[in-house]
Specification:
Blueprint lengths: L7 H7 L3 H37 L57 H5 L8 H4 L13 H13 L28 E10 L5 E13 L2 E11 L4 E14 L2 E11 L5 E6 L4 E4 L5 E3 L5 E2 L3 H11 L8 E6 L4 E16 L2 E10 L9 E7 L5 E8 L5 E11 L6
Parallel strand pairs: 9-10
Antiparallel strand pairs: 1-2, 1-15, 2-3, 3-4, 4-5, 5-6, 6-7, 7-8, 10-11, 11-12, 12-13, 13-14, 14-15
Length: 399
């Protein structure tokens, strides 16, 4: 019996045949490859699951907007203005330059300096309103007051400037009239300037009426120690008819200034002014500022019941025209140098865009409805009051 090999299993392995050894290694290699493949498959599957769980959805990128901005143009250098020469202008008048209706001519008076010195232009009166008296013959306080009076109207007397075409004259009421007989009314004038300065003067309202026509004359001035200095003269002339006074020409002359004229062109049917380029159609019943107080008397004499509501009168002044709207404030008794008189108080309040002053008239039925007091209150607060001192009836042909 053969003895077992002394080297055990190791020796047995070494003694295996080459064929058996090769097969054994091939099986090990195949098993290793299969194991690696299985690991790769599992790894890829796990990687896929993990990627799906943590993959964030793609965000849509917001569109990018672009805008082309042109560069700002370079600013041109400001033109260099040539130096302007300094102008030496007289100061503006301190009072309302609105020319008032007839009965307030003292409001147009030049300064007392102008009255004392005929060479002083009225346009400089505004600068002299507060000056000391230029002459010892002029009463204290009248210089400044008269200067303020002309300052109120100096604007209307400056050099005429071209004006835009005026609107047509508006329609106004038609009235039954009875013209007041020819007369002269002398009125005392008292003025209080906006600064409180007081002065006095005198006015003459004179009119003559005949079948062929009429003529009105207004003269106003200030009182001087031994005489009276005339500062303003206004005249109105024309025909008379069913509508009352029918003006054809009004002239106005202020001390130190050229005369101005307002033309009522009856043939052409126009109202024109030498002091401006304004022009209006000539409406029936149109008056000038010299005739309008007496036209109110004619309306009251025609029928006092017409003094109701608005009493509208289209009035041509020295440079322009507007509708004067009067109303009756009531019946009053007033004290005058003629005594206590019963009157009807008629008011023209300020009218924005047309005139800034207030005009009051007191018509006396016992004196033929003529005005026995007139008062003008300017926009500045300056007040001029004219009160009848004497009324004289005149014949139509008398001077």
């Amino acid at each position: 019996m053969c003895a077992a090999p002394a080297h055990g299993w190791t020796g047995y392995t070494r003694q295996m045949s080459p064929v058996f050894a090769f097969s054994h290694r091939r099986r090990q290699l195949v098993l290793g490859l299969v194991t690696v493949l299985l690991h790769l498959i599992v790894f890829r599957w796990l990687s896929g699951q993990v990627g799906l769980a943590h993959e964030a959805p793609e965000r849509a990128e917001a569109p990018m907007l672009t805008e082309l901005i042109a560069p700002a143009p370079a600013s041109a250098p400001a033109p260099v203005k040539p130096p302007q020469p300094e102008l030496s202008l007289p100061p503006l008048p301190a009072l309302d330059p609105e020319p008032v209706a007839l009965a307030d001519p003292p409001a147009a008076a030049p300064s007392a300096a102008s009255a004392a010195d005929p060479q002083t232009p009225a346009g400089d009166a505004g600068a002299q309103a507060g000056a000391a008296p230029a002459s010892g013959n002029v009463q204290s306080g009248q210089n400044a007051a008269a200067g303020s009076a002309v300052a109120a109207n100096a604007g209307a007397q400056t050099e005429a400037q071209p004006a835009a075409p005026a609107r047509p004259a508006p329609e106004v009421r038609h009235y039954k009239v009875d013209l007041p007989p020819s007369a002269d009314i002398t009125l005392d004038v008292a003025r209080v300037d906006a600064n409180g300065t007081r002065w006095s003067g005198e006015e003459l309202l004179s009119w003559r009426i005949s079948p062929s026509g009429y003529r009105i004359r207004v003269e106003a001035g200030i009182s001087v120690v031994f005489t009276r200095v005339n500062l303003l003269t206004v005249t109105s002339e024309g025909k008379v008819g069913d509508e009352g006074f029918v003006p054809t020409l009004m002239t106005e002359k202020r001390r130190g200034r050229s005369m101005t004229a307002t033309h009522f062109n009856r043939d052409a049917g126009t109202l024109t002014f030498s002091g401006s380029q304004a022009s209006y159609p000539l409406a029936p019943g149109t008056q000038d500022k010299a005739s309008v107080p007496l036209q109110l008397s004619a309306i009251a004499r025609g029928d006092p019941r017409q003094l109701s509501g608005n009493i509208d009168i289209f009035v041509g002044e020295d440079r322009d025209a507007s509708v004067f709207s009067f109303t009756v404030a009531g019946q009053e008794q007033i004290d005058t140098p003629l005594g206590r008189i019963k009157t009807w108080h008629v008011v023209r309040p300020p009218k924005p865009g047309s005139y800034g002053s207030r005009l009051d008239l007191w018509l006396a039925p016992d004196y033929g409805w003529v005005p026995v007091r007139l008062r003008n209150v300017e926009a500045s607060g300056a007040t001029t009051t004219q009160t009848a001192r004497r009324i004289e009836r005149k014949e139509a042909g008398s001077s």
